[in-house]
Design brief:
- By secondary structure, this protein is an alpha/beta fold.
- It has two domains: 314 residues, Glycosidases (TIM Barrel, Alpha-Beta Barrel), CATH 3.20.20; 123 residues, Sandwich (Jelly Rolls).
- Helix content is 23%, strand content 24%.
- It contains nine helices and 17 strands.
- The strands form three sheets. An eight-stranded parallel β-barrel has the order 1-2-3-4-5-6-9-10, surrounded by four helices. Strands 11, 12, 13, 14, 15, 16 and 17 form a seven-stranded antiparallel beta sheet that branches.
- α4 packs parallel to α5 and α6 runs parallel beside α7.
- The protein is globular, with a radius of gyration of 25 Å.
- The chain starts with a helix and ends with a strand.
- 48% of the residues are buried.
- Bound molecules: beta-L-fucopyranose (FUL).
Length: 484
């Protein structure tokens, strides 16, 4: 018996060894890994938020839900104007506040009279926006606030059923939904319930979120679910629109829930997380989420937005940029002009890859299929990988002529997991010395995308040194740019 057991153990060890050491095959996934929906979601990179509702007309951010539905009275509402603007600003989708904390619904919900149906504007804003998205080819997403300051039943089990019913309406009546936003906000002291009424709930249990997520999964299997702790994607832990340079797409899934108090951790994720949950960086183009005339002069500048792009998309996150629709029902001209110029600037800065024709070699390569020459070939599914067990290796880049660069973009092949823990980018000086392009910023994780900005360097030879990796690195893209 004992003899048999030893044999079995030896066989198991050999099989395991063969599995990890077979370098003729693609690398094994390094868990946790994303679902195909999560990969497709991250590839969207930038998409928009629209905050619009009673707050727009009451000049508020968190309405009490006690002003009449008739207050909602846009005079020139035009969802096509929103979507055309967003397309020009490079947005790949839009998420609408179908119901914010004040409980007012932008669609004629069967379950309440507190909606557009009882306002001078008789239309269905959710329908108009989702139709415009289909027409102009961007994705449509839904924000439905769990916290509801209008419904008298809020705080009782009846409200939760009401919430699920509304979720079902939104998941079934408007076509494909790419993301559903579960807002963790639930007021603070003195902010519970409608008007000044206090209705306290236990956020971690009251809504039975797993049940709500089940509704989404059943009715919209392609949708990614957002909340502080996912499960599809996570809040980045601030509303300023950036992630930390060190940014893991992992979370300890059981620990984080909507309203998680240690939310600052979400800026970097959990290096030891057991689930894939990449970060979404949300911020508004103005100080407020809703439109306030006094903020017409406070729209973020193109420079500020460019910086945020590098600190969100360039830090392995997505950017969710909010546009407060005004009382007419339009995106304000200052906001649209700024967003379009921002997109043009990003296109200029990252439009021309100066390493496209460079020669890529590596100090270790798994086999010919995973050669570093796949870099910059535009094919998402080809990538360089080292042999199993090799977790530090250099990719060397040579250009025919000297090039001047001040941005380098790196991408990991995330369907196999996020692996790199530390890297350094270097250039060879004229006296033959390798020098890092940047020393005052962490160069640790890469993930789906990492863009490193640095003062211009001119050279013919560059290298990306993978210093530490959770398993053999899988890099599918390296590009270099110069921006004035
Ligand atoms: C927060 C909300 O309280 C804000 O009003 C806004 O909707 C923002 C996107 O999320 O939690």
């Amino acid at each position: 018996m004992a003899h048999n057991r030893v044999l079995l153990i030896i066989m198991a060890v050999c099989t395991a060894f063969m599995a990890v050491a077979d370098n003729s095959l693609a690398p094994e996934p390094c868990y946790p890994i994303p679902t195909p929906q999560q990969v497709a979601w991250q590839q969207l990179e930038t998409y928009a938020f629209i905050h619009f509702g009673l707050n727009t007309f009451n000049d508020m951010e968190w309405g009490y839900g006690d002003t009449p539905a008739a207050t909602f009275n846009p005079t020139r509402l035009d969802c096509e104007q929103w979507v055309q603007t967003l397309v020009k600003a490079g947005m790949k989708g839009v998420i609408l506040t179908c119901k914010h904390h004040d409980g007012f619904c932008l669609w004629p919900s069967r379950y309440t009279d507190y909606s557009v149906a009882n306002s001078p504007y008789k239309g269905d804003v959710v329908r108009e926006l989702s139709d415009a998205c289909k027409k102009y080819g961007i994705k449509f997403g839904v924000y439905l606030s769990p916290w509801d300051r209008h419904q008298a039943s809020y705080g009782t089990p009846e409200y939760v059923t009401y919430y699920y019913n509304q979720l079902e309406e939104l998941m079934t009546q408007y076509g494909d939904v790419f993301e559903v936003w579960f807002d963790g906000a639930n007021g603070g002291d003195g902010w519970y319930g409608g008007a000044s009424e206090k209705r306290e709930i236990d956020r971690s249990t009251y809504y039975n979120y797993p049940k709500a997520w089940g509704i989404v999964n059943r009715l919209q299997p392609g949708a990614v679910i957002f909340s502080d702790g996912g499960p599809g994607c996570r809040w980045v832990g601030n509303e300023k629109g950036y992630a930390n340079p060190t940014n893991w797409s992992f979370l300890r899934m059981k620990e984080v829930y909507p309203g998680y108090p240690a939310y600052e951790e979400l800026q970097s994720g959990h290096a030891d997380g057991d689930g894939w949950c990449a970060s979404e960086c949300d911020t508004s183009i103005r100080p407020g989420w809703f439109y306030h005339e006094k903020e017409d002069t406070m729209v973020k500048t193109v420079d500020q937005l460019v910086d945020l792009y590098y600190r969100s998309v360039g830090h392995n996150g997505t950017l969710l940029l909010n546009f407060p629709v005004n009382r007419e029902g339009l995106i304000h001209p200052v906001d649209s002009a700024t967003a379009v110029h921002w997109h043009e600037r990003i296109n200029r800065e990252l439009g021309s890859n100066l390493l496209q024709k460079a020669k890529f070699t590596a100090t270790d390569t798994r086999n010919k299929r995973f050669a570093p020459s796949s870099m910059g070939d535009g094919d998402w599914n080809t990538y360089w990988a080292s042999k199993d067990g090799v977790t530090a290796a250099d990719i060397e880049i040579k250009t025919k002529k000297e090039v001047t660069l001040n941005r380098i973009m790196l991408q990991e092949y995330i369907p196999l997991g996020q692996r790199v823990e530390e890297f350094v980018i270097e250039y060879k000086t004229c006296c033959g010395k390798w020098v890092p392009v940047i020393v005052d910023e962490e160069t640790t994780t890469i993930g789906y995308k990492r863009i490193v900005r640095f003062a211009p360097k001119t050279a013919k030879e560059w290298r990306v040194r993978i210093i530490r990796s959770r398993a053999c690195p899988c890099i599918n893209n390296i590009e270099g740019y110069y921006s004035e």
